[in-house]
Design the sequence.
């Protein structure tokens, strides 16, 4: 069983992740602050990070509540980086910004969809 942290504010995506990983412990958070808090408290096997949060789309990475803030925090605190990090944001600019500060992260568009 893997510990999976998912940062996403969309209820249908959250449900999709839970269906996709029925045998794993999936914890969903909806804010950058909650994601950072969870990353600092628990050793995660996998993290899935969305960029746009708070029900908004095409959010600028300079705003405080985005997945970019989490990616930047991880890059500054590498001991908390999970074994694998996936970026599942549909915001291509935000996803590119996240990838720039966390180059080991992998793109996983539509990761919440069942295989």
Sequence:
């Amino acid at each position: 069983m893997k510990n999976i942290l998912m940062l996403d504010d969309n209820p249908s995506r959250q449900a999709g992740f839970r269906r996709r990983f029925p045998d794993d412990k999936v914890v969903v958070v909806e804010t950058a602050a909650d994601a950072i808090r969870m990353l600092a408290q628990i050793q995660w096997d996998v993290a899935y990070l969305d960029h746009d949060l708070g029900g908004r789309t095409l959010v600028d990475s300079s705003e405080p509540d985005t997945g970019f803030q989490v990616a930047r925090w991880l890059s500054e605190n590498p001991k908390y980086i999970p074994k694998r990090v996936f970026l599942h944001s549909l915001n291509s600019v935000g996803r590119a910004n996240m990838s720039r500060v966390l180059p080991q992260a992998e793109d996983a568009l539509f990761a919440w969809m069942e295989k």
In short: The two ends are 18 Å apart (CA to CA). The chain has one domain: 3-107. Helices lie at 11-20, 32-41, 67-76, 92-101. The mean pLDDT is 94.
